[in-house]
Design goal:
Helix content: 10-25%
Number of strands: 11
Strand content: 15-25%
Radius of gyration: 20 Å
CATH superfamily: Vaccinia Virus protein VP39
CATH architecture: 3-Layer(aba) Sandwich
Order of helices and strands: HHEHEHEHEHEHEEHEEEEHH
């Protein structure tokens, strides 16, 4: 893995497997969401509907998705980390997508000569020097503001150093009315209860995203909700896996107003291990929340105090 985006055993997943990981069912919900986006834009639309996969790996799901919508006015894009020549990666360019049907049984029906291939790019979103991380200038997304209608990412963001930067960039490129499904984490992400009863233990926290006010934990759903306001809607699952759903409601610039916290951020081998002693993979991205925002927030446990 070369910073920012996973390239590993999950790189050749089928589209149905992505639906399973995002929505916990193998029903075609990504496809249904794209159909809904297309319908909502009216006919004729001023431009094609645009879809982005972050962390597309070998591009198998991306190509399958594009094939299913080949008769619609939809443009597909993919971003993944650049890799060295020594790594056994098949797809290193848009042209390499042509060879996938010959390599994967579930793609055999795809006629690439009858398909506009997805545009792909190779760079690591959310990576940068310590100074760039501190100033919020980690690598962004090379797409225009308000230009993408549907974004999805699976088993990728947990490896990104500056996760908030990536999420802010997704909001920036989403068109008003656009939606993103981001698989951010699958361990310990919702520490709201521990924050409420004072049992939160920073040293043993295994989640990959952490918001703090000094040393005190700030629950992610509450902070995101306050910052999003009427501009951006963030939805969180009542589940162990953090699948962040984002809906952009208008085209104003957006920021979480946080500062990257180098001291509390951790690399893979410094992360607390699972109960069985195994590494959890990924990195912890910690942030100091803006004091002016924290002052305006009311937490549920504050309301319960006499």
């Amino acid at each position: 893995m070369t910073g920012g985006v996973l390239r590993g055993g999950a790189r050749d997943r089928e589209l149905s497997a992505l639906n399973q990981l995002i929505f916990s069912v193998r029903e075609p919900l990504l496809e249904q969401n794209l159909d809904a986006v297309i319908a909502s834009r009216g006919t004729p639309a001023k431009r094609p509907t645009r879809v982005l996969e972050i962390g597309f790996g070998e591009g198998t799901a991306l190509l399958e998705f594009a094939w299913q919508f080949r008769d619609k006015q939809v443009d597909f894009y993919g971003i993944d980390a650049a890799v060295g020549p020594e790594e056994e990666i098949t797809v290193r360019s848009q042209e390499d997508l042509r060879g996938l049907p010959a390599r994967y049984e579930h793609l055999r029906e795809i006629d690439v000569e009858q398909l506009a291939l997805p545009e792909v790019a190779f760079y690591a979103i959310g990576e940068g020097t310590p100074q760039e991380l501190t100033t919020g200038q980690a690598r962004g997304i090379d797409l225009s503001d308000n230009s993408i209608d549907l974004v999805y990412s699976v088993a990728t963001i947990r490896f990104v150093t500056d996760k908030i930067r990536l999420i802010e960039e997704v909001v920036r490129i989403l068109a008003p009315g656009g939606t993103a499904f981001l698989d951010v984490d699958d361990v310990d992400w919702d520490y709201s209860a521990a924050a409420a009863d004072g049992t939160f233990d920073l040293d043993s926290y295994r989640g990959r995203l952490l918001l703090l006010a000094g040393e005190a934990p700030v629950p992610i759903p509450i902070y995101f909700g306050v910052r999003g306001g009427s501009q951006v809607t963030f939805r969180f699952p009542p589940a162990r896996r953090l699948l962040l759903t984002i809906t952009k409601n208008d085209d104003r610039p957006f920021s979480f107003g946080v500062r990257y916290d180098h001291r509390h951020s951790l690399k893979t081998h410094d992360m607390p291990r699972r109960p069985n002693g195994r590494l959890i993979g990924g990195v912890r991205s910690a942030y100091q929340a803006a004091p002016r925002i924290i002052e305006t927030m009311t937490f549920p446990w504050q309301q319960r105090r006499p």
